[in-house]
Write a structure and sequence with these properties.
The chain is an all-alpha fold. The protein is 49% helix and 0% strand. Residues 1-43 form the Nerve growth factor-related domain.
Length: 43
Amino acid sequence: KCNPMGYTKEGCRGIDKRHWNSQCRTTQSYVRALTMDSKRKVG
């Protein structure tokens, strides 16, 4: 489940929540790619 805040044990972040609101159940490889991309966007 995805928390309203966008933070979950899976590693869901508020930024990631934008791309997938209720789809926090993704493979770690996909999450890693998202995390790397979001970090670059955040700075």
